[in-house]
Structure formats: structure tokens, C-alpha cells
Sequence to fold (497 residues):
Amino acid sequence: MRKLIIPLLALGLIAGGAYAIFGPNGPGAQSVAPPLPTMNTVTLPVSVEGRVMPAQQAWLRFERSGMVSEILVHEGESVAAGQVLIRLDDRAQLLAVEQAEAALSRAQARYAQLLAGASPEARAVADAALQVAVAQATQVALAVDQSDVQAAEAQLAEARAARAELLAGADAELVEQAVAARDQAVAALAAQRSALAAAKVNAQLALEQAANVVRDRQADYSRIYWENEDLRQRLGDDELPQARLDAEAAALRAVQNAEIALAQARVAAEQAAQAEIEGIAAAEARVREAEARLAALLAPPAADKLAALDARIAAAEATLARLRGDPRQAQLALAAAQVAQAQAQVAQVNAAPRDHELAQAQADVAAAEAALALARLEYDKLNLRAPFAGVVAQIELHPGELAGPTTPALLLGDFSAWHVETVDLNEIDAARITTGATATVTFDALPGLSLPGRVQAIYPHGVDRLGEVVYTTVIELLQSDPRLRWNMTATVTIEAP
Fold:
């Protein structure tokens, strides 16, 4: 505003002098009739101050706390998007990743084994056992006494009881417990979803509140700062009351504390969102496990197991018959039972995996994959990466220091393009300019340099500065200069319609 006052005063003085010379009573007066008034008016350009800003800028922070182990860049270095800039101590998390990889390998091996069935070696052993049973069918001859008879009777009774239990299916109490566990897991999943969603919403609300506090503290500091600036211009730097200086420092600390609280709220919101994803995934895995256990209990008896029990019963009956009856007939019955048992073993080895076993193995693989993905994600959070290509402007950490979400680590700027942000555009001038208007930019530190520009954006929200509402306008520089630096003071002259 002050920059416009001087040109206006100059125009007033020129107009007054012209009137004094050429007016009705001036020495330059003529006898011609005075000119008729015209409707044309002179539109003055808008001149404001600004700061040179890069295309992008960001203070980077770690998502997790840890000890700085390595700083891979230096100030002034150009970096690519995604490049690792600083690394925290990752030894513990690296072990967690290796353990998760080992657990996934075990789960995948178990699943592959079920799909592949028995190995050729196991099939060969079962076939060999069958051949041995056939060969020994005529060579069995055992001594008989009462203890042998009692043992054979016990084996027969045990085999028959096992067969009856297998045909009866799972115990009703175990099934009821499995159903209850499944229902409990489903209810826990629903409760987990509700609780985690509420926690995420609360964290987001806290983030918005923290952002509002930052804006309020910044407005307070801006007001006190410009009030003090005005007093300095009127009283001098040494005459500014200490109370005003203390108020400005306190307002700055309030801004910094509010920004720290905002960063903590942002981290809490991100953690709540991640916790929702991880918590729901874990609850869903528990539901799948409970359903797999229930399916295993309700599954019909496997044919290979039933055949094996029938073979045991036949063997026990044959042994008992041999011990109680004709030795020759007993030997034959025993040989037949041994052959039947060997055949049951072959059938068991060659049997295909059951559906519930495959489902359980798949669930184990999925759980191991999720655990590995989580471990790798936590490992990657120990690396601070560049979110965009730019230049390292400032590094705030050193090796051996503790870093975390509330600690600024590195300032990154994109110097591929520059723009100017105004600092003192008042509401009257803001109403005069439009997006796309041409502008000329000069720089206090670079005398003689004048660059063309264009109004790229006008912030819709104004702020109070020393009782005057000012707006921020972004000026796109249509040309650049290698001498431009971040935060250089610039003067922007905007052509107003």
C-alpha cells in the first residue's frame, strides 16, 4: 500500500503544477476555451512485495522413532523421488523380516507338500512293506500263552472302539466349542471394525483440531509481529518495550508448540488408519482359522483312516484266532491281516489331501504373507525417502541421534521452477487483479534483473496484519535465473485491468 502512495503523490504534484502554469490565472493561460472533461481514467498497476519460493518444499520426518545410523546425502545435493536420504538403525527390524520370511517358507512348504502328496520315497516304502507282508504270510509262527491272548483281545477291543469313535464323528461338546469359537471370532471381527473405525475418526478429528490451533497461533503471532514492526518503525528498534518483545517470542513458541502437536496428531491419524487395516486383517485371519477348525470337526471320516482301522481289527482278530485256534489257520489269518494292513498303508500314502487340510494350509500361508508384508513395511519406515525430486536444503540430524515423528529431519525443495508469493497485497488491490494477469518481478538482491510473470493463484482467505487484511498471491515466473535463491525478497508489479 505504501508503494502506491508515492506515485499518487507525484501525480498530484504534477497536476497541481500544471494547473498553476496553465490555469485561468497562470502565465501559460490561453484564450481558447477550456477542454471538455473526458471519461478516460488512468489505471495504475499494483505493486507489492513477495518472497521467492521453490516449486515444492517439505520438512521430512520419520514415521517411527529410532537411532540415526546413516545420513546418505549432504546439504545442497540433488536427489531423486523415492531416494533414501537418512536411515535409522534397522538391525532388530531386519531380524523380524527374516523371521517372517522363514515362517512364510514353512507355511508354503507345508501347503506344497499337501498338494504334491506323498514323496516317491514314501510310496516306495509302503509298496515294499506290502511285498514283505505278502512274503511273510506263510512264515509266521508264534508261541501262544495267556498274556498273548489277553494282549490280542485288548488290541482288538481298542481297534473296534477307535473305529466306532471315527464313525460317530467329532464329540458334540468339541463341535459346540468350535461353533462358539467361530461365533466369537466373527463377533470380535465386527467389534474390531467398529472400534478401529471410531479410533480412526477420532484421530482425524484431533488432526483437524490441531490444524485449527496452528492456524489460530499463526494468526496471533502474525498480528503481534506486525504490530511490533509498526512500533519499531515509529519508535526505533531500541525503543520497543520488552513486554512487546516477550509477547512476540511467546506467540512464536505457541506456533511451534501447535505445529508439534499437529505433527503428533498427523502421526496418530496415520497410525490409527494403519491399525484399522492390520487389526481387521488379524481378526479376519482368526475367523478363517476358527472356521477351518470347525470344518475339520464336521468333516466325514477319511476313507484311508477307516481302512487302516479295519486292517487293525482284522490283524487283531487274526492274532486272536491264531492264539485260540488251529495254528495253521491262525497263521494264514495273520498273514492276510498283515497284507490288508500293508494295503491300507499304501492307500493312506496315496490318498489326496482333504479340503479342510488345504484350507488350513492356505490360511497359514495367507497369515504368514501378511506378517511378512507388515514386517517389511515396518522395515521400510526406518528409511527416510524423498517424496519428490529436489535439492536437500537443510539437515537437522546427525548419526547417533534419536529421531522420531516429532523431530524435523530434513528440508527438501524442488528448485526446478520458482514462483513468488506476495506478503502485503491488501484487499483493495486484491479485488483489482485476476488470475492470468501479467506481472513484472524485480529482486532486491539482484539489481537490474527483471523477470516476466503471471498471476497463477490468489488465495481466497485473507489474514489480518497490523489492522489491514492482506492476501497471498502466487506469481508464476515465466523465465528463470540461476542466481535466484529461496526466500529472496522480490517486488511484484501486476497489471490491473
